[in-house]
Each structure stands twice: as C-alpha cells, then as structure tokens.
C-alpha cells in the first residue's frame, strides 16, 4: 500500500497497540483490561505492562486447570534466592470443591438487575501471569466459574460486577455485525476495512444516542411477560420508522450550497 508492504499483527499486538492509544489519553489512570480467558494470560499482560508499566491490570475468567500457589513465606537465614511461589494449592477446579462451603451471598448489580451471588475469594500466586492475583469463585446451583485479576485493590464483589459488565461488549459486537452490517463488508484494503468498522461503530453510537432522547421505549418485536427491556434491533427499527420517506438526503438551496453535511448524511443512511 502506497509503496510499502502491509505488516500484519497478532491479536495480542493489536490489543496492546489499541489499549496503549487509549491509555495515552489517561496518562496517570490505572488501566484495567476485562477480557475472556483467551486473552487472560501473559501473552497480553506482559507486553501491556512493558508498554504501560505497573498501572496496567488484567481481569479475566480463569481456566479450570490453572494451577494456583500460596504466596511465598519468607525464611530468615535460608541461603539462595528467595522463593517466588509458595506451596501448590491445586488447580481452580480442585479449589472450587474445597472452598464451596465457605462461599457467602452477595447482592450485586448484574446483567441489568439486582441478583444474589454466592462467591468466595482468595489471594494466590499464578505462574501463567507470574504474579500475585485475586481469584473469585462464583457458584451456581450446578456450575461455577473462577475470575482472576492482577488488581489487588478490587474487592470480590467488584470483580464479579466488572466481569459481568463485559457481556455488554459481546452484545455490542452482535449489534454492529448483524444489525449494522459490519460483517457484510467485502473490502480487502486495510484502510477500507478500518474505515468501514469505524462507520459501523459510529452508526451504532448514533442509534443509542437517538434512543436516549426518546420519551418512551420503542415497541419490542419479541415482547414477553418476563422481559420488558427493548433490544438494539427494536431501537433501529424505531429510528427507520421515524425517518419514513424523508431519509437523510442533501437539500440544495438556490445558491447551490447544501444545507446538510454529506458525511453526516452517509452515516445516518447507514444507521437507518
């Protein structure tokens, strides 16, 4: 492109670059990256800390076979290098069985409602991240999950709520792919791919801004007695209905100067 070879990056490298760009805006603010288990390892944390320093933290789901260790105990007078890890406690699945009886109930804001969650937490050492971490086991009737973070200032309930909020990101991916159409692009030029995705995200943002200014919620296509919240698709259909036949074309005055910005018109057509 433009006489230069296109350099492709791994997912980790792209993530570190994008998070680094965001972190520049908040130069002194701690950065907490909430990710799924695929990103929850040293492949992301180590280069991220190399770029941002100790203010970079990770919160992720812990794999069931991840081995956990007790913090090292100082041994005065012992020769050699101090130990980095204490005794092996077992993996996440084994500790879930051991600690289930110690779980206590917490009332948390999760998935748009107030829910009661049974959880127990521990400070342990994790070799895959090469540091001390805070692990929270969340128990359901027949299942459980373990969450891990390098930010030791977070409480157990905060860890659960922050990870629960990550689901809105997954919902956002679905919105821009299926409702806006980001997955339908046939572009191969890197600039075109980036521009198309940026336009799709802008369209999704405009749709939610439109929804925030509605006096009443739009009608749900799939309404049920147990669920009253509207979906992004309902909001987009309401916007399209509002526009009707007028659209977002460019009006020209007698002098030939358009009264509407062509870029805004293009974005709004994409939304509709």
3D architecture notes:
The longest helix is centred in the last third of the chain and has 23 residues, at 190-212. The chain contains eight helices and eight strands. Strands 1, 2, 3, 4, 5, 6, 7 and 8 form an eight-stranded mixed sheet that branches. It has helices spanning 11-25, 42-52, 92-99, 156-165, 167-180, 190-212, 232-243, 262-271, and strands spanning 31-35, 56-61, 67-69, 88-91, 104-110, 113-126, 131-139, 144-149. The relative contact order is 0.09. The chain is α+β, with helices and mostly antiparallel strands and 272 residues long.
Helices and strands in order:
Blueprint: H1 11-25, E1 31-35, H2 42-52, E2 56-61, E3 67-69, E4 88-91, H3 92-99, E5 104-110, E6 113-126, E7 131-139, E8 144-149, H4 156-165, H5 167-180, H6 190-212, H7 232-243, H8 262-271
Parallel strand pairs: 1-2
Antiparallel strand pairs: 2-8, 3-4, 3-6, 5-6, 6-7, 7-8
Beta-strand share of residues: 15-25%
Characterize the quaternary organization of these chains: single chain
The helix-strand sequence is HEHEEEHEEEEHHHHH
Number of strands: 8
Structural class: alpha+beta
**Residue share in helix:** 25-40%
């Amino acid at each position: 492109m433009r006489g230069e070879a296109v350099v492709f990056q791994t997912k980790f490298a792209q993530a570190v670059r994008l998070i680094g760009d965001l972190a520049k805006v908040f130069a002194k603010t701690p950065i907490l990256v909430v990710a799924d288990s695929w990103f929850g390892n040293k492949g992301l944390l180590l280069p991220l800390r190399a770029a941002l320093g100790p203010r970079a933290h990770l919160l992720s789901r812990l794999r069931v076979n991840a081995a956990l260790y007790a913090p090292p105990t100082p041994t005065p007078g012992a020769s050699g290098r101090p130990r980095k890890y204490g005794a092996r406690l077992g993996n996440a699945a084994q500790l879930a069985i051991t600690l289930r009886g110690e779980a206590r109930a917490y009332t948390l804001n999760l998935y748009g409602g107030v829910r009661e969650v049974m959880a127990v937490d521990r400070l342990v050492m994790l070799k895959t991240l090469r540091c001390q971490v805070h692990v929270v086991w969340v128990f359901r009737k027949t299942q459980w999950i373990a969450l891990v973070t390098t930010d030791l200032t977070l409480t157990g309930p905060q860890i659960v709520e922050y990870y629960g909020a990550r689901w809105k990101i997954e919902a956002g991916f679905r919105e821009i792919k299926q409702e806006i159409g980001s997955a339908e692009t046939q572009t191969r030029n890197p600039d075109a791919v980036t521009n198309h995705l940026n336009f799709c995200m802008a369209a999704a943002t405009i749709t939610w801004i439109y929804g925030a200014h509605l006096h009443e919620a739009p009608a749900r296509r799939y309404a049920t007695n147990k669920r009253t919240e509207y979906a992004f698709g309902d909001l987009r259909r309401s916007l399209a209905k509002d526009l009707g036949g007028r659209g977002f074309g460019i009006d020209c005055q007698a002098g030939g100067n358009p009264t509407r910005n062509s870029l805004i018109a293009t974005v709004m057509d994409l939304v509709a």
